[in-house]
Amino acid sequence: ELKVEQNPLFLSMQEGKNYTIYCNYSTTSDRLYWYRQDPGKSLESLFVLLSNGAVKQEGRLMASLDTKARLSTLHITAAVHDLSATYFCAVVNTGNQFYFGTGTSLTVIP
Amino acid sequence: KAGVTQTPRYLIKTRGQQVTLSCSPISGHRSVSWYQQTPGQGLQFLFEYFSETQRNKGNFPGRFSGRQFSNSRSEMNVSTLELGDSALYLCASSLEATSTDTQYFGPGTRLTVL
After folding, report:
1. How far is B71 from chain A (nearest CA, A)?
2. To the nearest whole angstrom, how far is the Cα of A108 from the nearest Cα of chain B?
3. Smallest Cα–Cα separation from A96: which of B61, B22, B46?
């Protein structure tokens, strides 16, 4: 079964700082997703990464995918309080089943 | 454009009962996926429907089933409820295929099994 690990699980960072969330997965996949979830709310799709070397950016968030290393990163630039949320990555196996990471709870401190 | 809607938003059932949850996708979207979210197991994929056909299925017992209607609305059913079925059930819709299209999530149905 495909395993997806995220780290860190919890992240507290000051406004204006940069940080990276890591998503490792155990078997081959060429599709990876990033989602955001605010407390008590539903999921919001952030990025879909479809190929090795894919990079996508939206505002202060940038996601990348290295399929050879089975690694995706979500980089946060100059964090602001509005980015406080839980971030999930998800990987799709050859059977088109989604496997989610444990989530990274991000708190941005003023 | 209306978003994904799920009904009911909250539900309380007792063990052994069955429950049906409903999801109305964004107009024009043909793919609907269902997910279960619990504190212990995290987010897990249940199944995906496209044009009334179940296209993918996660690792859940047969008590969990679903269907999709010709208007793309989807329902999921859980029979013989267990305490462990207490969770937030999310549905998501996308235009064509979940593999490449952006998914839009509904607010979820919070099911509590007593």
Report:
1. 23
2. 22
3. B46
Site from A89, A98, A105 to mutate, B interface, most B CB atoms within 10 angstroms: A98
Of all residues in chain B, the one with the smallest CA distance to A42 is: B107
Q: Which SS3 state, helix, strand or coil, does residue A81 take? A: helix
Does A42 contact chain B (CB < 8 Å)?
Answer: yes
Q: Each residue of A29-66: pLDDT tens digit?
A: 878 999 999 988 889 999 999 888 899 999 999 999 99
Per residue of chain B (114 residues), give pLDDT as tens: 679 999 999 999 999 999 999 999 999 999 999 999 998 889 999 999 999 999 888 889 999 999 999 999 999 999 999 999 999 999 999 887 656 678 899 999 999 999
What is residue B83's three-state secondary structure?
helix
Contact list, A97 vs chain B (CB under 8 Å): 45, 56-59
CB contact under 8 A, B100 and A50: yes
